[in-house]
Amino acid sequence: MSTFPHFPDGAVPLSASSGSVAASTASATLTPPTNKTASISGFAITSSGSTAATVVSVTITGLLGGTMTFTYTTVAGATLKNDPLIVNFATPIPASGPSTNIVVSCPSLGAGNTNASTSAWGFAS
Question: Alpha-carbon distance 85 to 80, whole Å?
């Protein structure tokens, strides 16, 4: 039986975060151990507003089946909060192969944005 009840037997938990970035790309990379396959269970993007309202495309690369894209918006007003984008996949999505990183990237939210963070979680088996 797995130590982690929602993971397959022998799976290694993975998590990553970009930390807080200002007006630049916020990426979280799930890196599996050598010869293991990473799977993403979910991700979250949180941020403050920007000088101007902005729409960006968040991507997840390294996935079996190709890149996934999600739309994320920011409000006008650097001290305002944006709605978070939190996605929990009903079924974890595996990487395209063993030892392949899964990367969740949120592009720069533009001028005036002082805080953006991307986090991702999953496992390797």
Answer: 16
